[in-house]
DNA sequence: GAGAATTTGTACGTATGTATG
DNA sequence: ACATACATACGTACAAATTCT
């Protein structure tokens, strides 16, 4: 389910929901590295700012952790 | 022909008519970016709300499309 | 170790979207 | 219709840290 520009829900929230589902579904297991911001940006057709806002939500939920210049890992 | 406060026609309709003519006249070609709402606002001496209302009319006519954070483009 | 490439961090500037008075 | 404020989103540029060659 891609992000939907027509949906009034903010894009970063939509993207966070998508990634959250993929994580819970097990697309990436614990300790595994998520795709880079650059990749997610192209994959979902949004700006990097939006990707980062989405990842921040997941971080705040404690679902992932981000390490500078390394990437974002599943908790 | 600038918008006329004395004219009982709503300002946003007057502005829409002006922009419509400019588009049909070829001031901006297909795919081109229209001036920003901020620019149009100052250019025509109206509020941003009025500019947005005018652009909405043109969108509903299928004459232009607006992309968030990018601008309004001629169809 | 050196240098290039990759990835996240930060900072702007600009534009549209929404809400309020 | 207007003015204001803030949220959301895009794009760019550069810095900092890490990884790859």
Q: Distance between termini of chain A? A: 23 Å
**Which percent bin holds the helix content of chain A?**
40-55%
Structural class of chain A: mainly alpha
Average pLDDT metric of chain A: 97
Quaternary structure type? homodimer
E-strand count of chain A: 2
- What best-fitting shape of chain A do the alpha-carbon axes yield? globular
Largest sheet of chain A: 2 strands, antiparallel
Strand/helix succession of chain A: HHHEE
Rg of chain A = 12 Å
Could you give the order of strands across the largest sheet of chain A?
1-2
Specify the number of helices of chain A. 3
Strand content range of chain A: 5-15%
Question: Descriptors for this entry?
Answer:
DNA-binding, mainly alpha
Description:
The structure is a homodimer of 75-residue chains. The first copy, chain A, contains 3 helices and 2 strands. In chain A, strands 1-2 form a two-stranded antiparallel sheet. In chain A, helix 1 crosses helix 3 and helix 2 crosses helix 3. Chain A is mainly alpha-helical. Chain A is 48% helix and 11% strand. Chain A has helices spanning 11-25, 37-44, 48-60; strands spanning 64-67, 71-74. The chains hardly touch. Chain A binds a DNA duplex (21 and 21 nucleotides) through residues 8, 10-12, 36-38, 46-50, 52-53, 66-72.
What is the gist of this entry?
The structure is a homodimer of 75-residue chains. Chain A has 75 residues and is mostly helical. The first copy, chain A, contains 3 helices and 2 strands; from the N terminus they run H-H-H-E-E.
Topology:
2 copies of one chain form a homodimer.
Chain A: H1 11-25, H2 37-44, H3 48-60, E1 64-67, E2 71-74
Antiparallel strand pairs in A: 1-2
Chain A binds a DNA duplex (21 and 21 nucleotides) through helix 3.
